[in-house]
């Protein structure tokens, strides 16, 4: 019986892998991969970036200590692979993580890579070095790290305040490359130097990014490509037409909306296209510091009024996921099981019943058919924000809430949210790794810079710490589910849906895998090749 | 003539000074600066990092200091550094100018070479089927937005030929080189051509009714001589005015066309710089454009004087 299950699991895995991976014969050397880029990134420094517009083109320049297997779509603790580290080990008390480093690795400028570079990188990220990053959006990832110590040139240890198995997940993110000590953060913004398969050639803002093959790459025989060229095309229609016309070998990863995907498939029927979750949730932020949303009943009513399936059907033609904070299964590792999810108020299948409950709560708060609550629904002036906000306003009408769309320019969005100058907001939250620590601490812990709603529950914060220290994944999952359920019940930041998006490439492009639970970690491209 | 030239030059300098103030203040009135945008992209705001960055970029200084720093640098040819790319602003701007200049020049050429002859023909053949047909063409040129026309051309190219004329810095064939500039120039120049044609037509119609035209005909001058030597020369003044104004408007049209055809010129670059609130790029680039536009108007004024002696004698 066990072998039957194993066979079924293997079959399912192969179907999943085949759907997102280009399987091919013997790889060929040569050729330049041409891809369009959706916009011009602010600079080339991944450590300072907070958008995958930086990761996609520049991840190939670097290596991490560890990395998620680039050909398994789902990032999980089981798919962690050594990279600049040859191996890693945890101390007996799980408070010391030691890496044995690879020898003979050179930076693109010829200098040798050593443990000092690792220490420099993480001291920089923890704000302990003399040189500073202009922006350090992921400093909080290393809150539990006491210090980095080196032992000789090829061993480095992370001393932790307490056990934190998730540290490895964060080290494996595309956001965590190792930087050289001898290049300043300012220079890394304009001319990045790495140890990766591709060397930086040039970055012309609004024009192009060019990488060339690193002939001295420490993985012998790799990369297969002679280079990668990204042409920056901000107009999506132009970019897609250019792909259809064969000007590009690949679209920008997860840049194709579901309706546009149909256009591509009809105009370029030979193209390989996949749709995967981006691990970006669309959610509601509620200003609970002032009336009327300081009333928990009204907040709960808003959560009950949501018809999530309608959002998914209208915006994604049914191809998006409904879940809690963590990305739903099967692509998500930590998502709540469906039966547990449906026990959360507002997630039940009977939308009308949910809304009847919501109306009762509204009436309890003093609103009804004759007295509607007028609110402004604030959101960023981007289509992926505006479109769901309009649907939200429509759905809120059913529970005596008259919403008015308040479109805010990007430059003003976060300052406005930070000073609590909003009532109800529609927000997008991207998760760079599918990991509970990253999501919970960043978005829900008291005092976190990205906890826009200032939700603060000391009891739940203790639970964050409990799950964070659990080293057994099977024991950790139920803890994570309970926390996620509690967050939804508290209306901390009601999750509406988790988006999906498409990526296409020409049939001769091989060795590409689109990650199914993160849009930040899968762009090393060292074994991508062109079958031409 | 000399007094006229000096007066115009003085007016030009005053205008440019006013423009510099307007550019500077408008950019500061627009909510948010580069630091806000960078932190917005990162999804958080760290007040200490924000203050450090504002100090590093000098945008924490009083406005008058910032203005003086910029304008004195501009006059010395020191454009400062782009906040985004951290490269010298001049180094970012200069390579893009020839691209846009080529595109704008071709669009203007398209506009003049199509608009003026068709306008003359339309006026001479007033009330005929040809006139009606040309008026429909000109109306459609005024009605169709250039971005729509551009996208239509791209879509049609892909659907019909499987090819797409987007910017190619190293064209291999004559056709590629032609497609790189000519197609977008036609897309953006179509509107200007339509306007030029309408102005030429109405101006020609007015001139063709003048007594001296009748006299020329009575003296036995050929149609071509009457239309092109006598009528067009006098009808061209309002057309020159419109072309001068259109040269400035063209920049607006080019922003969209450069985006649709993915041409890395200054127009699209300017929009991106505004989006990032990259003050050194926006201020210097808009100021350069202002210099070009004001100079173009100055040249138009001089041309007026050349074409119409009454202006240089009376103004």
UniProtKB/TrEMBL annotation, chain A:
Cellular localization per UniProt: Periplasm
Bilayer-crossing regions: none
Keyword NADP listed: no
GO molecular-function term, one example from the UniProt record: peptide transmembrane transporter activity
InterPro entries xrefs: Peptide/Ni-bd, SBP_5, SBP_5_dom
Pfam families found in the cross-reference section: SBP_bac_5
Annotated signal sequence range: 1-24
UniProt-listed GO biological process terms: peptide transport
Domain Solute-binding protein family: start-end pairs: 80-448
Superkingdom classification of source: Bacteria
Keywords: Signal
GO cellular component terms given for this protein: ATP-binding cassette (ABC) transporter complex; outer membrane-bounded periplasmic space
Family, as annotated: Belongs to the bacterial solute-binding protein 5 family.
This protein's name: Peptide/nickel transport system substrate-binding protein
Biological source species: Bradyrhizobium shewense
The organism's taxonomic lineage, starting at the top: Bacteria, Pseudomonadati, Pseudomonadota, Alphaproteobacteria, Hyphomicrobiales
UniProtKB/TrEMBL annotation, chain B:
GO MF annotations in UniProt: dipeptide transmembrane transporter activity
Keywords: Cell membrane, Membrane, Transmembrane, Transmembrane helix, Transport
UniProt cross-references to Pfam families, sorted A to Z: BPD_transp_1, BPD_transp_1_N
PROSITE patterns: ABC_TM1 (PS50928)
Cell location: Cell membrane
InterPro entries referenced in this protein's UniProt entry, alphabetically: BPD_transp_1_N (IPR045621), MetI-like (IPR000515), MetI-like_sf (IPR035906)
Topology in the lipid bilayer: Multi-pass membrane protein
Stretches assigned to the ABC transmembrane type-1 domain: 97-304
Residues passing through the membrane, by range: 9-30, 103-124, 136-162, 174-194, 235-256, 285-307
Cellular component, GO annotation: plasma membrane
Family: Belongs to the binding-protein-dependent transport system permease family.
Protein name: Peptide/nickel transport system permease protein
